[in-house]
Amino acid sequence: MLQHRRREGPMDKWAAMEGHRRNVKTKGIGYRCWKARYGYLFLVPVFLIMGIFKYYPAATAVVMSLFEWNGFNYREFIGLGNFISMWSDDTFVASLRNVAIFAAADIVKTLTVPLLAAELVYWVSSRKAKETYKFIFVLPMVVPTMVIILMWKWIYNPTFGALNLALNALGGHSNHAWLGSADTALISIIGVGFPWIGGIAFLIYLGGLQAIPDELHEAARIDGAGVWNRFLRIDLPLIAGQMKVLIILSLIQSMNSFENVLVLTNGGPGNYTMVPALHLYQQGITYNRMGYASAIGVIMFALIFVLTVISYQFKKEGKRHA
């Protein structure tokens, strides 16, 4: 006799799925790792490279910061001696002051011109014109940083630089050494890249603006809100997250300032443009004070880490109250 099979109902399917889930859980994390073993194998070279070229040198720098070390055969343990003498080093103190000025200037630049450019491009009605402006503003990203720095070094040249030539063409008689004067060297480095439109900040702002629903702007327009009110009440609050991320990136980039100062002024005149990364380089490479240079690197890492944590907590508080 034929036996009739009972049709499976929803409860049977649920029980089967639940049994399968429990079966997977009982197999444990070891089984899941074994199944993903080939994926982990592909990660091994990445971890090896990072360990050899990042984590091992970083750990070595922390250890060597406790020694007086010339980078070769001489090494003497001095504990916190490098860190103590660092704060009586006028050059290091001046470098901290300068990098704080650079950081403040970078934050102001990041929060103003790229945001204005993104707003203007966002409100362009023609799609073709919008894409053209985006291409123009993003183009500087593909130019090597060193090329831009060298171009600005030529602009600031006192003899045949474009800046003095332009001032002379306007009726002045300028042969000012913009990078060689204590009064203008720092501000000249800050001015590199003017008008500071192109780059990642512009793209992040534009992406944030494009994520805003059109209905919000339309409702504000119907209510009679002008461009300025729409910017303050809609755009600015909704891209606050992007702004905070860019502040963190600006702080990190400013603390790591090195190649621009090295090429333009080498920290001079005097110590008016010295920054911690360049001071580290000079102490370690030029004067063979590798232990002291390692201590500067540890302090720089600690400062960047603390600033990043503070900025991240500030961002979380902003989200909580939003």
TrEMBL record:
Keyword field: Cell membrane, Membrane, Transmembrane, Transmembrane helix, Transport
Transmembrane segments annotated in the record for this chain: 38-56, 99-123, 135-155, 185-206, 236-255, 290-312
GO cellular component entries: plasma membrane
GO annotation terms (biological process): transmembrane transport
Classification via InterPro entries: ABC_transporter_permease (IPR051393), MetI-like (IPR000515), MetI-like_sf (IPR035906)
Domain of life of the source: Bacteria
One Pfam short name: BPD_transp_1
Membrane topology per record: Multi-pass membrane protein
Subcellular location: Cell membrane
Residues annotated as domain ABC transmembrane type-1: 96-311
Family the UniProt entry places it in: Belongs to the binding-protein-dependent transport system permease family.
Protein name (database record): Sugar ABC transporter permease
Source organism (scientific name): Paenibacillus thalictri
